[in-house]
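Severity: low
Component: inverse-folding endpoint
Summary: output formatting inconsistent between runs
Steps to reproduce: submit the following structure tokens with default settings.
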């Protein structure tokens, strides 16, 4: 007996594909960790993938209070 109560399981976690700043590679499901506003220097937005977030205990910017 299959019990289908939901059409899909799509939580509020958009799958973004891009460069993970921590392992220096592309990955799916990256989240914005740090947004650095700098006019010059190595500023910019830092994204991390799921495994790197676990390894480094990173909390996405949107998940912080
Ligand atoms: Zn990564």
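Observed output (run 2 of 3):
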């Amino acid at each position: 007996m299959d019990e289908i109560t939901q059409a899909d399981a799509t939580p509020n976690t958009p799958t973004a594909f891009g460069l993970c700043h921590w392992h220096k590679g592309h990955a799916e499901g990256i989240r914005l960790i740090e947004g650095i506003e700098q006019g010059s220097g190595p500023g910019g937005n830092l994204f991390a993938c799921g495994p790197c977030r676990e390894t480094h205990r990173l909390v996405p910017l949107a998940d912080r209070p």
